[in-house]
Amino acid sequence: xxxxxxxxxxxxxxxxxxxxxxxxxxxxxxxxxxxxxxxxxxxxxxxxxxxxxxxxxxxxxxxxxxxxxxxxxxxxxxxxxxxxxxxxxxxxxxxxxxxxxxxxxxxxxxxxxxxxxxxxxxxxxxxxxxxxxxxxxxxxxxxxxxxxxxxxxxxxxxxxxxxxxxxxxxxxxxxxxxxxxxxxxxx
Length: 187
Prior knowledge:
This protein is of the alpha/beta class and 187 residues long. It contains four helices and nine strands, in the order αβαβαβββαββββ. Helix content is 28%, strand content 28%.
């Protein structure tokens, strides 16, 4: 339960945040991602795996644009646990369907450092996936990536190096629902 001070902090963060991408810009980016995924996977019946909780908004909006057979699953791996900086990876839920011989597309909100995303890719490969691709709503520009040259296979928008929230990304577990992508003031 949120207390009065936390509620006030969350309101202040949202009120003072800087909008980087409007909801219309995000919807355009997701429609473009859908076209790119359709070109690549329309004849492959892929498994789309949503990384919870951040990838939920992207997945929900994206799949409505995909007019080909696919299956969906999810996983929950985190380094943040409601904090603003990451620690060790914690696997909370792993995919339930077999990935053996399947083309897998991992859907996530953001590629920041990429430590979690790299661990997820490796886990899918170890389960025998025929291929593993990554699709992120946001790629954050900076030089702290977990691997040199790390990029997602499909990227919606590229954002500055700031603490971001909205469209699935959170600030201390809040504001995933913000309609657009925002930078926290002073980040």
